[in-house]
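Input chain follows. Return structure tokens only.
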Amino acid sequence: MQLNVHGQSCFVSCPDKAFDAGRPTVVLVHGAQLDHSVWDAQVQGLAGRGFGVLAVDLPGHGRNRDMATLSSVEAMADWIIKVLESAGVRSATVVGHSMGSLIALECAARHPARVNGIALLATAVPMKVAPALLDAARDDEPGAMAKINVWSHSKEAATSAAADVNLRTMQAQKPGVLHNDFAACNDYTTGIASAAAVRCPALLIGGERDVMTPPKAASELAATLGSSRIIIPGAGHNLMGEAPVAVTDALVNFVTDHCKATT
């Protein structure tokens, strides 16, 4: 559906013909160089359990490619809240993958009244990017994307259909997005302080074989949030593609449990 966000028309994927802002709502935020389509399995699973679901395309990504990209995690988090306001949603669970996990974290820290829970997938704080990869993202996007796609999957899944879909999704984004997103992740330095300010329920989901954001890289974050953790056996960074059922089940259970606790 199209929303008017501060005078700009933007696309947000919603499985319902008429979005009902009165239902418990889950917002899904994709990672760097990706778009809303990475959440297709989770959208259907959550909607099938009666939740309102909004899967965003961040500015400059996917069907919002004509919008100017946002250069910081903080700006992206504020934009997510504007989307909620435009959709008439008072509060929502914000779910983010990789860069999107930083955005979800910052949403909860900056806008506590608007966020009733966060789920952070394939996360790390800090989420530093190697200088050579930042340079490649700027100077050789095709080569950088090919490497990132390999690193985003376990060895067994590197040649799978999930890996093919992930690469095509990255290739569909407009030039410059990859470096913009990686720079935003690299420059985000306040994650632990933000986590200390979070008061809503939190869940961390990691892949056992994730080499981009290995589970140990989120240990301090998990401790600061006091969150529960799920490590999916055998999965790499592309959790939604490699383990769609496990991720969907974990999210449905998390959102159901914390919604029950607040009713």
